[in-house]
Task: structure prediction
Amino acid sequence: MAATPRFRNDADAAPDPDISEPAQPDRTHPVDETLPPLKMFTSGLQHVAAMYAGVVAPPMVVGPAVGLTPKETAFLVAASLFTAGIATLLQTLGFWRIGARLPFVNGVSFAGVTPMVAIGKDRGHDGIAVIFGAIIVASLLGFVLAPYFCKLVRFFPPVVTGTVITLIGVSLLPVAFNWSQGGNATADDYGSTTNIIMAAVTLVIVLALRKLLRGFLQQIAILLGLIIGTLIAIPVGITDFGAIKDADVVGFPTPFHFGAPQFEIAAIVSMCIVMLVCMTESTADMLALGKIVDRPADERTIEGGLRADTLGSAVSPLFNGFMCSAFAQNIGLVAMTKVRSRFVVATGGGILIVLGLVPVAASVIALVPLPVLGGAGIVLFGSVAASGIQTLATAALEKGENALIVAAAVGIGLIPIAAPDFYHAFPKDLLVVLDSGISTGCVVAIVLNLAFNHLGRKPDEEEDAETVSEELANAAPVNVH
Result:
């Protein structure tokens, strides 16, 4: 019988010869595979469609808040798409020790919206300039810290990673529910039966396509579902063509369009906190995606991923973009479609750059009504939560206090979702962390894991812990299919 082909975790690693059997050529790991051009483009476009709303939402909130005109806000949106494409290419293709080289989509982090609004509120171009200056300093600091921050990976055993992955999926579900209602809580039709039925129809279409289609068509079921849902939405009357009419055919995000960056201490401190939050969430996202694609994220992978995040964020203000980080919603798409190639996501990054340079093309993507996107989002984000539950199944919850760790971390991580005003009396600077269920849940899981599984152990308990660790190390990687 032929030897089982080995996947290579490092493109530069030498093959491991088997002295008992003839050497077999190494197979390319699915993460490093290239697909035919049509599959590459459509799969990449599917990633863009899944994350588009998440990229354009922050500039659409920050622009009006600082006093920009609608045209200037549209410029910010195009710049955010352009810089998201650059950051995605850094993450997927990489160079030197920059980039996780995993199928990660990078885009504007929503974690920074609240502090950015506080920094630039009603200050116009000066407010944007101060925001950009703070992002540059915080990003360069994050780049320097990346080699040290990545060492936290040893504090992410399955009981922690499973908890965090589950929280990522659960925390994203309210976004899908909001989209399903229409996305704008002040609109007259928010939560209307039309919007919710449209979301339900799209959800049913995506599930039916996944069940009935085979091969490549099954892999792009989300994209097909969005297209069909949008076509159905046209006669229903919830598709807005205004964006196409008003969009420019060609545009370029002129460097420092709003003026040279300005540096204020308070703003820099706020954005440094945001950067630490983003780095924590990106670390958790890389661990989650590494399990899904069967290429576990080690310290070097996380270091490269964090460097790509921070370098992309440092370059972003040059082209009038904001802080970038990994997009968790696309992890669900990878888990669902089983298309693990990083070059597919790199193609998506190229599409994002084109959308940023051709606003009229970006407006075509914007045709997808939010209720349609919400119906598909329920499947995408639910897939992330399901992969977290699958990881928890390997976490030996029956051993020690692992079940208690999960219970406390998930419970605290759900506070911002279940009770959004829970921390309303706390200082605004703390809300950057507390309002992120992923960050708080991650910190709680790490601290409790240290307290219960590491500190103050007796010799016999340490022996039991070593046995458990050995069992987990020998466990097969989690596959999400």
